[in-house]
Amino acid sequence: MAALRICTPTGPGEPKRSNLASSPVQLGPDFIGFSSSLLPVGVGYVGDHRRVGSAVVTCRGFFADNVRRKRRPRASLKNSSVCSLGGHGSRESTLCVYVPSETSRYREVPSILGQKIAQGIDGNPRASKEKEVKLWRRLPGVKKLGRHRASKHGLVKDRHGRKSVVKDDDANAVLSCITPESSIEECNSALIHLEKHSDEKALNFFDWMKANGKLKGNADAYHLALQAIAWKEDWNMAELLLHEMVADSECALDARAFNGLIYVCAKRKLDDWGTKWFRMMLDREVQPNVSTVGMLMGLYQKTGNLSEAEFTFAKMRNCKIKCVNAYSAMITLYARLGLFAKSEDAIVLMNNDGVVPNMENWLVRLNVYCQQGKTEEAELVMQSMVDEGFTLNVVAYNTLITGYGKGTNLQKAKKVFDSLGSAGLAPDETTYRSMVEGFGRADKYEEAISYYRRLKSAGFRPNASNFYTMINLLARHDDSKGAYEVLEDMRTAGCQCSSIVTVLVRAYGTAGRMHKVLPILKACLYKKILFDATSCSILVTAFVQKSLLEEALLILREKKWKDSSFEENLYHMLICSCKEAGSYNDAVRIYNQMPKSGTHPNLRICCTMIDVFSMMERFADAETIYHELKASSCVLDLIAYSVIVRMYIKAERLEDACSVLAEMEKQKEIVPDKYLFLDMLRTYQKCGLLEKLSDTYYWILKSQVECDEAMYNCIINCCGRAIPVDELSRIFDEMIQQGHLTNTVTLNVLLDIYGKAGLFTRAEKVFLMARKQGLVDIITYNTIIAAYAKSGNFRSMNYFIQRMQDAGFPVSLEAYNCMLDAYGKAGQLEEFAAVLQKMKRAKCKFDHYTYNIMLNIYGRRGWIEDVANVLAELQSRGVEPDLYSYNTLIKAYGIARMPEDAVKLMQEMRIKGISPDRVTYTNLIAALQRNENFLEAVKWSLWMKQTGVVWSGARA
Predict the structure, then answer these.
(1) How confident is the model at residue 906 (pLDDT cuts 50, 70, 90)?
(2) Which of 694, 788, 888, 917 has its Cβ near the most Cβ atoms within 10 Å?
């Protein structure tokens, strides 16, 4: 609903209803879904801040039960209460006022103030009928609750408290009568008059009174000065004046001193300052009164400050103050926040405290129950209102209708609607709106549209909620003609085109009828939408999200607005939407229709499309976009390089990825983020670029990228063999100290590095950590067994082989190979043979590594027959010798003084397409030299240099 904004057309319009929640003068309930002209004015709230005499009744506000009467109500002052009298003379409302305490120092009423009392609350003689009418504006048929302030000698204040200056003659006349010998009462009267005329003049005169000793014990003057300073919002001066009032003038602080300050805060919604003055009031042990509580609670209700409202409410009850408005504000605040249980608790507290509800409070209670759909409790509240002598107005009926609608008790709602006539009331716009909402919520299509049309025929206008309800209802019932009607009403009401489109696509999208949207719009608003970029973007995005690509592309082709920047952002958003939904082909179609610039392509769109083509494994198309970017004037940024590198990684073109990274590193201003650093580490690790891995690791440290669990694991896995062991241990300890979890791969890498470095104590600690965390696998055992086997520590090797079996893992082929290699190189041929027998009993399938170990061990001994047997067995299993096998055989033939056979192996390698490496040439040359074939050895040495293989200078 936030997207639905109604713009009121210019010109005379329908009079607005009152809104108690937003009124700066009164307290009132927040009625959700309706408003009415008959809501009462708040009780006990501040009114005219100017009546501040020592024995003057200070009117802080009033409320009136606005029951439809033939006669205008009259107001009278009786026993410190303002009574609104109907034709029968019964009291309809009560005004809570502040009466000064009996300890007030000045008991005599200045003549000017006495005159005001005689003139009445509005400051004018009661004989003036016209002024009496201005006091009570709440008449039947009036649709707006006005807030009227009676003029005081031509002085007018706006809602912010600003004074409009009249004439200086009156002020000069008053000041001309004042001399240093004038009495305090005369000075106070002059100060009252000046304060009405100008805050500045009043404060200047207050300074004159101070200089002439007229402020000693004169609390009334300080009250007026505080009020004037408050309107200027000079809070520091107000605090100083309060201190001066007590310390210098020996005046006692009372609620009146703070009420003037709190009043201004309430008028201007300054809840922080209002709270400060109230806390200061309590700190100085000044007893608050009804006006204090009423103003604060009204302020907190407007600003929604629940915590301070609860604090003030608790203080009110502790002080035994009974302010009905405070209870109403508390109930309203809780209801507004959906805390209905607390609202009901506040009602119970009010009953227990013996506070008599007024009309406003009854309506607040009724609203609480109706908002929850608790119709039985709401009916009891209605009955109690009647029993207490309150005449039910249309607001009460509207509230009850809303309650029945929320409780889906539509028969009773209709019955209440029909009973309005017998109660002498006519349905207003809120009544009809509530009926539409109730039947719409219950999915009663016929009844809802009937009340919707009755609402319009009665001369009222549907509100945003009605439009939203009706569109959703029409979408569910597939009524396109009804949708045309409601859309036209929305346009007539001034709804923005984008708001209409938003409501329509949400409703029809939820109903699963998104395909009906375009035909509906073509019948009424389509041409207007084509000229509105916002409406087009909303509509196209909705179509793309619902996989209606043809409709989206049609609108993009037919649009009439031109805004290249907005258009590029729209296309990018659509492509990203398709990408997130996995609709890669749709993303490509949208991209192909997009207007393109060869010299200034959109970098973000190009990067997104490179990513899309990579996901589709269309790497050629992705690379084409990359080359277009390079050829254009675009400068690649971090995101672009990240996407391009990831594209080459997915295409398994790691060399190209390294080239892009090298190009990126030339731009010194680009610092990779965490994700690009991870890609760099994995790429360099797969390419075996240890130096680049080391450089990247120290770049990460320098850039101070925040390392998380993934980063730590990746650094150890990839850079473990490229950085010093001590640095690796440091980064691993740092990872553990920060509470990050390792994974099995990380621990296995550490085991391998520590094992090859001979750091077996660290290796065993890592193994114990892996076992405690349940991360030990067969690779873990193979790694630590290989480490001990290579170091010749046969005892530890056999220990971990036993642990491997105890853990439920069979002895792996890798473990057997490590044992064979270790025993063979150590010359323990009996154990070597025993391991071979175990492998045969375990039916292990020998791999190339197994045969190469056997060839190497037999070849070192010169056991050519055993070598031949291994070769025969290798070939019988359909396995051809690999490069390592040939290297081992050539070395064996050299040891056995069979150089001709070694040369034949070189020829055999060429036939089989196996390229010899440096070890191959080294072994062959060594075999020839061992057998004194020096000339042949020189020939092979020259041949090796011609082929580009560097000879390490092997000797016979």
Answers:
(1) confident
(2) 888
Asked if 232 contacts 199 with a C-beta cutoff of 8 angstroms, the reply is: yes
Backbone angles phi, psi at 788, to 5 degrees: -70, -35
What predicted TM-score, i.e. pTM, was given to this entire model? 0.63
Cβ atoms of residues 591 and 566 within 8 Å: no
Residue found by looking up tokens 């031109």 in the block: 562
Own/partner pairs for 879-882, CB < 8 Å, 24+ apart? 879/848, 879/851, 880/912, 882/848, 882/852, 882/914
Helix segments in 337-428, DSSP class H: 340-352, 359-371, 375-387, 394-406, 410-418
DSSP notation for 135-151: H----TT--S-------
The closest alpha carbon to 283, from 228, 326, 243, 317, belongs to 243
Please choose, from the candidates 98, 65, 54, 68, the residue with its C-alpha nearest in 3D space to the C-alpha of residue 423.
68
Instruction: Supply the mean pLDDT for the chain.
Output: 79
Burial (0-12, 13-18, 19+ Cβ within 10 Å), 809: middle
Task: Work out whether the CA dihedral 206, 207, 209, 213 comes out positive or negative.
Answer: positive
Q: What is the Cα–Cα distance from 887 to 337, expressed in whole angstroms?
A: 83
Angle of helix 744-756 versus helix 725-737 axis, rounded to 10: 150
Where does the pLDDT of residue 59 fall: very low under 50, low under 70, confident under 90, or very high at 90 and above? very low
SS3 84: strand
- Residue indicated by tokens 């290579």: 790
Using alpha carbons, select from 518, 610, 585, 523 the residue that is nearest to residue 556. 518
**Predicted confidence band at 29 (pLDDT cuts at 50, 70, 90)?**
very low
CB-based burial, 295-333: b 16+ in 10 Å, e otherwise:
bbbbbbbbbebbebbbbbbebbbeeebbbbbbbbbbbbb
Chain centre distance of CA 439: 34
Q: How big is the chain, counted in residues?
A: 956
Across-strand partners of 78? Answer: 81
* Cα–Cα distance measured from residue 896 to residue 887, given in angstroms and rounded to the nearest whole number: 14
DSSP 286-335: PPP-HHHHHHHHHHHHHHT-HHHHHHHHHHHHHTT---HHHHHHHHHHHH
Reported as a single tens digit per residue, the pLDDT across 393-421 is: 999 999 999 998 888 888 899 999 998 88
Picking from 98-107, 191-200, 372-381, 425-434, which range would have the lowest pLDDT averaged per residue?
98-107
Q: What residues contact residue 500 under an 8 Å CB cut-off, 6+ apart?
A: 487, 490, 491, 525, 535
Closest CA to 28 of 295, 328, 303: 328
DSSP state letter for 23: -
Q: What is the 3-state secondary structure (H, E, C) of 444-495?
A: CHHHHHHHHHHHHHCCCCCCHHHHHHHHHHHHHHCCHHHHHHHHHHHHHCCE
Give the DSSP letter of residue 514.
G
Exposed, middle or buried by CB within 10 Å (0-12, 13-18, 19+), for 405?
buried
pLDDT band at 741 (very low <50, low <70, confident <90, very high): confident
Are residues 105 and 31 in contact, defined by beta-carbon separation less than 8 angstroms? no
Please state the separation of Cα 744 from the chain's center in Å. Answer: 37
Six token digits for residue 435: 């009926």
* Dihedrals phi, psi of 305, to nearest 5 degrees: -85, 85
Residue that wins the pLDDT comparison between 756 and 575: 575
Residue with tokens 């292990």: 844
Cα–Cα dist 112/91, whole Å: 30
